[in-house]
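Form 7-S
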Amino acid sequence: MRKLILAVSIAIFGAQAAAAGGYPVRPITMIVPFGAGGPTDVIARILAQRMSQSLGQTIVVENVTGAAGTIAVGKAVRGSPDGYTLSIGHYGTHAVNALVYSLPYDPVKDLRPVALLARSPYLIVAGTEVPVSDLKGLIGWLKANPDKALAPMNGAGSAGQLLGIAFERLTQVQFRFVPYRGGDVASMQDVLAGRLPFKFAQPADALPFVRSGKIKAFAVTATTRVAVAREIPTTDEAGLPAFHMSVWHGLWVPRGTPSHVVAKLNATVVAALNDSVVRARLANLGQEIPSIDQLTPGALLKQQQAEIEQWRPIVEEEHIKAQ
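Output:
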């Protein structure tokens, strides 16, 4: 009996010790809410590779697609709160979706923030057949050709729709929104083929085509120019002041994950983002790494909540709801 009690005591002590300082002791899963090859997936794989080295365990990237990321986030919410389920996503999947979808979870209350990862503004790009050379010219051309004022969107509340509505309000251009099931890849192909006049694109998707002369870039939706494309003016410089939007990415774990695990994951993310190779790879994607004071769980929570409140008026006034 004493041996049994001793064995149980040793097992409990071992479990407590592992919980306190042994994490991680097995592979970790990072759930990506989009398919392989997109910006979120690429960021996830860059970070997972470097974080795995620090943690001494493999981080397996799992792509879970569908319903604008809500399926993937829901899966993460249901994961065990032990540090072995990570949820990566952006302003859409972890903020705006709460305004547009009837969700069985709350992305703020049911997830615990780990760290803000990176930000990237959008480029306003157009096909080469659009006969203008700057943003003011594009606005004038869209007004003069209302039948060609088409704006792509990947679903209700997607960046294409929200940016398009904000653009309309500032410029008085009236868009007809075109839904794309194939996402940004499909709409970019239509810009290249001349079937779609323009779009808002992430630098990682657009810059290769800009540099090859297949599309034109008129502005970047930020207050400063993109480091990898200094030749592209900001919207303020191009004549559309205050038209700013960036895609920020973050990392979360299920609610209830122990604080020491969150702290270890946060420290691992910070170390990864300080790695020169990681920084260079993210910079090539047009991603900007936040300052050290912004790489905290609290900063990510603040960003998440602020994004929800920023877009709430437009979503409510335009009655944007997922079907």
